[in-house]
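Worked example 3. Consider a protein that binds guanosine-5'-diphosphate.
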Amino acid sequence: MLEKEINKRRTFGIISHPDAGKTTLTEKLLLFGGAIQKAGTVKRNKAEKTATSDFMEIEKQRGISVATSVMGFEYKDIKINILDTPGHKDFAEDTYRTLTAVDSVILVVDCVKGVEEQTRKLMQVCRMRHTPVIIFINKMDREGKDPFDLLEELEKELNISTRPLSWPIGIGHTFKGVYQLHKKSLNLYSPNKKEIADDVIAINDLNQPELDQMLGEHAAHKLREEAELIEEVAEPFDLGLYRSGYLAPVFFGSAINNFGVQELLDTFIEIAPTPQGREANLRQIEPQEAKFTGFVFKIHANLDPNHRDRIAFCRITSGTFLRNTFYYHTRLDKKLKFASPTSFMADNKSLVEEAYPGDVIGLYDAGNFKIGDTLTEGEKLQFLGIPSFSPEIFRELENTDPMKTKQLEKGINQLSDEGVAQLFTVNPGNRKIIGTVGELQFEVIQFRLKQEYGASCIFRPLNFSKSSWVSATTPAAMQQFLKAQASRIGYDKENRPVFFSSSQWDLEYTAKQFPEISFHDTSEWD
Ligand code: GDP
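Given these inputs, the predicted complex is written out as structure tokens:
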């Protein structure tokens, strides 16, 4: 029974540099799944403006995005869970954490722009975790780069092998469709924004003369040549290599025109991994285990001060989750039960009675959870693989209302539990350093501290650009390092020491001086 539920599920994320077409593709996938009836239903979960004064607008959009944080739907008897990731780079940490809860990703690339900054960063995270990736090259109706050049760029810049499974015929105004290399079928392109097109023609032999009539002699000739070339030079598609994150199958299409999306989805359900196990501190947890385990990877706060409740998003790793059943919160060593766990189906929320590995449920929370927390049926274990990443901007928090010191303390602790920013403490003096990936978070923190906790603060700039978690070959070496570098050492919320550096050069220079110390970009390392 459990096995059946597991095999039925695929949980994945769609990632892209902003504007490549993530929202559009998500919407088309939901259309195919029958989860929504018409285009325009999925709210854009993104912040277009970067002016800091717009952050309330962004938070509002994030509010909207609660409903679209997880979008579940059924397609050909498969339960598909799409985990949404914010595109705005200031929320990149949110995205990194969401990637810990997926089993695979679809990466959307704009054929005009190719690999962009966020594409690179997100793929780094996927590579780190060996997440299987399918690439969808979008906007083929635009005058984009040559497809061979695009593949080369992807391989070089993203450090992954690629294997086209479909091949475009023309591009931009000469775009005629795609040829499915494996299925040997041709999809002819007709711009169609709303409905689902099904102009699929089986082509058993690319040499058949009808092809010339359908595509024109020139395009048909080019397709024959290119298809032959791909078969010669491209690596064969190897499921194992895809599943272990080394080989990315590539599709071409145009999301807005609903083109190439169905082939993507059909192949996705065929090859994408079912819910996978996760590593915990004591052992590896497999989804088939009868006992429930899960972890919290995202917390969404309610901005309305009258409703302080938060939603903790929990990914189920093993067993069956049941409503109104006591589960063990391993960090707090306490039992909790949930009366109204929520599941998400496209734009609907509903009460969930039971949930299975791969599912994501929303748990209403009054402050028990922080990111990375583990729930079990009693075993005291902690899931790994939800590391913190080094922030990029560091500022010192200064209290400007001494009467509200306690509130400030509580507020900043809770906000960092939610993952809004990272909090480091520097001794002596209990100074607080806030690390973020974007300017926006400082505005958000200041505003929320005031609104929700009545506390006031300002931020002082610091000349740090990176925090590295440190380990040493011996405790004595660690002591010596911490003492020698005291002014640049802080402690994270788990009380692990971090070293602040001002540049890569600075870090490397220090590393040379202290050969017994290892510096880590994330809070978990091998
Ligand atoms: P996101 O930021 O990655 O979520 O991107 P969106 O889905 O919001 O798309 C960004 C813009 O590209 C929007 O104006 C879309 O209408 C447009 N777009 C998406 N897909 C296509 C496509 O296949 N062709 C063209 N020409 N435009 C597209």
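Take a moment to read the result before moving on. The chain has three domains: 9-173+238-271, 278-376, 393-520. The pocket of guanosine-5'-diphosphate is lined by residues 16, 18-24, 44, 46, 87, 138-139, 141-142, 254-257 (CB under 6 Å).
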